[in-house]
Amino acid sequence: xxxxxxxxxxxxxxxxxxxxxxxxxxxxxxxxxxxxxxxxxxxxxxxxxxxxxxxxxxxxxxxxxxxxxxxxxxxxxxxxxxxxxxxxxxxxxxxxxxxxxxxxxxxxxxxxxxxxxxxxxxxxxxxxxxxxxxxxxxxxxxxxxxxxxxxxxxxxxxxxxxxxxxxxxxxxxxxxxxxxxxxxxxxxxxxxxxxxxxxxxxxxxxxxxxxxxxxxxxxxxxxxxxxxxxxxxxxxxxxxxxxxxxxxxxxxxxxxxxxxxxxxxxxxxxxxxxxxxxxxxxxxxxxxxxxxxxxxxxxxxxxxxxxxxxxxxxxxxxxxxxxxxxxxxxxxxxxxxxxxxxxxxxxxxxxxxxxxxxxxxxxxxxxxxxxxxxxxxxxx
Length: 380
What we know:
eight-stranded parallel beta sheet; TIM Barrel; alpha/beta; 380 residues; 16% strand; two-stranded antiparallel sheet; globular; 38% helix
């Protein structure tokens, strides 16, 4: 049976393979003249990732936005960006599909090879198919409950982490993206369930999540997995939605052994939300550390999201901040330069739904990041 049978999205044949060390090395070599060496960072698997990644959260769920994302992706790939981030719920699955169409076009044109590009997506939030259905509750019941994929108690405010649901969503995402294998699959904002179901039940659910994702790795549907959060890793241990990175890694080791595939986390990191760098929210070896410190200690890759805080940091920065970020021409570049310069950040993700934004942001590929002291000085 076709692995994509019964799933929505474009009907093209899936692209095999995944991002590799040799592929990304080739990508880096091809962009050696236009990008400084520090633009590319190495993950624990030896994969070379661009310090700026294309995000796909914002925009209307319409054809015009789809086309802009496709064009932005093609240009970003040509200018030295090989990290693409999306989620099944972004724009009612349309962001995944736009990325899939853009990748297909770039591959057909010989612009890139599959093994040169790192594609991540997320699952957890209920996503309708292309737009709001006339009767949302009926659609959810017919799609997930009546079909036996989920039980009503699996849902927490439009979020679900049941194993069969995740298996279903991974299939949909692979179909939308047109890829046999996703490089990194995140559980999307799991901390939203923690406060609702309590710590013991949350731990039970996360164990089942990791078991399912390790099985997805075995099936070659994903290469690795992680958690993409908004509050969880930024909040203090006393908060009801606090996530412990140490506990996540420990759970992954219990489920998958020393060779587990929990490899990355994603969280907001920007000048207005610097907690990952500036606040000790994580316990590691009986000491409180920042998330970035704890992640480096545990060999976990960190992707910074909301680098421009959804465009709020793209203008009107104080003059004293501008002076601490030399070499940049715009406030958007300055905000992005801050995030990509923080020690422990592998890639700063930024929404780029137009070629104009891509050109502006990827000017930074030719600019070295700030040294750690100068990056910290921006917050003073």
